[in-house]
């Protein structure tokens, strides 16, 4: 396995129909090859709370795990020129540790993410545009405070998260009348210190540019803090359809360069990670 050329396209965050995406593994792999992608990481949702997804519609259920792995392996065999890496996006909430460890067994990459505030059976989904009750009840400032507390708890958990995904997800509705009124700098400093102290990577995601946020996750101010803290990054599109695979990855490299980064971390098919220089 050769080292990646500087500035190669590696998409570290994608979803298929097995969770809440639109494409098959085959379709996502074909789209990655067409986009000039060197490394494609599959990260379907796993371990969402039952109260968040009672019918198992937006995640891989435990019963589906064998079929999910087989479909991924078939796509990998059909696309030998594309380096495919098997992973999951594992949602964190209090008490999730056993399920995450058991269901993600065999994954080469585990993205840690927070979409749910509160306990497993008594909480709220913070980025569901069809249900903004938690935003109305708590207000944006308190949602941010609780999200950062949960994100840091996920960082500090014993789970083997390789990357912490979309670290400033509450920015999702900032342009829809739900922007915070507080100065986020102290919360950002807390996140950067937590990621540094816990030895975590964080994701630089292009998804916010497609979802009306008008910015990357994380935005420049937070990304600069991660950089100053020495926190490595991995870049992903969070693609939920084939057309979005590798979307904006090279532009994200330039964004990272502007924040002070000179490299990004990329998972490899042998289970290791490579630090790839940016161009």
Characterize the main sheet.
7 strands, parallel
The secondary-structure element order is EHEHEHEEEHHEHEHHEHEE
| Overall average residue pLDDT | 94
Distance between the termini: 21 Å
* Overall morphology: globular
* Widest beta sheet: strand line-up: 1-2-3-4-7-8-9
Output the number of helix runs.
Answer: 9
Strand content: 15-25%
Q: How helical, in percent, are the residues?
A: 25-40%
What would you note in describing this structure?
With 279 residues, this protein is of the alpha/beta class. The protein contains nine helices and eleven strands. The strands form three sheets. The protein has a seven-stranded parallel sheet with strand order 1-2-3-4-7-8-9. Strands 5-6 form a two-stranded antiparallel sheet. The longest helix is centred in the middle third of the chain and has 17 residues.
Sum this structure up briefly:
Keywords: Amino-acid biosynthesis, Histidine biosynthesis, Hydrolase. This protein is α/β, with parallel strands linked by helices and 279 residues long. Helix content is 33%, strand content 20%.
Defining traits:
9 helices; 279 residues; 11 strands; two-stranded antiparallel sheet; 20% strand; alpha/beta; histidinol-phosphatase activity; 7-stranded parallel sheet; EC 3.1.3.15
Chain-wise SSE layout:
Blueprint: E1 9-11, H1 25-34, E2 37-46, H2 65-78, E3 83-91, H3 97-103, E4 109-113, E5 116-119, E6 122-125, H4 133-138, H5 140-156, E7 163-164, H6 185-198, E8 201-205, H7 207-210, H8 220-228, E9 233-236, H9 249-259, E10 263-267, E11 273-277
Parallel strand pairs: 1-2, 2-3, 3-4, 4-7, 7-8, 8-9
Antiparallel strand pairs: 5-6, 10-11
Helix pairs in contact: 5-6, 6-8
């Amino acid at each position: 396995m050769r080292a990646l050329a500087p500035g190669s396209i590696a998409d570290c965050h994608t979803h298929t129909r097995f969770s809440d995406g639109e494409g098959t593994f085959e379709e996502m792999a074909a789209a990655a090859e067409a986009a000039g992608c060197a490394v494609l990481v599959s990260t379907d949702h796993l371990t969402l709370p039952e109260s968040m997804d009672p019918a198992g519609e937006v995640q891989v259920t435990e019963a589906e795990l064998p079929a999910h792995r087989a479909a991924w392996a078939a796509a990998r065999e059909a696309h030998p020129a594309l380096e495919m890496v098997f992973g999951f996006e594992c949602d964190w909430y209090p008490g999730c540790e056993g399920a995450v460890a058991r269901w993600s067994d065999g994954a080469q990459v585990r993205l840690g993410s927070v979409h749910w505030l509160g306990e497993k059976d008594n909480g709220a989904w913070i980025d569901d545009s069809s249900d903004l009750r938690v935003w109305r009840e708590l207000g944006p400032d308190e949602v941010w405070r609780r999200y950062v507390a949960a994100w840091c708890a996920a960082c500090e958990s014993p789970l083997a998260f390789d990357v912490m995904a979309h670290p400033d997800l509450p920015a999702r509705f900032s342009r829809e009348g739900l922007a915070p009124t507080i100065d986020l700098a102290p919360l950002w400093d807390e996140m950067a210190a937590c990621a540094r102290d816990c030895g975590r990577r964080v994701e630089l995601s292009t998804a916010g540019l497609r979802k009306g946020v008008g910015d990357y996750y994380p935005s420049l101010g937070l990304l600069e803090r991660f950089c100053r803290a020495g926190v490595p990054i991995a870049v992903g599109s969070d693609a939920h359809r084939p057309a979005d695979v590798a979307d904006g990855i090279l532009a994200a490299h330039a964004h990272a360069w502007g924040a002070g980064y000179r490299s990004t971390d990329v998972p490899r098919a042998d289970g290791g990670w490579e630090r790839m220089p940016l161009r």
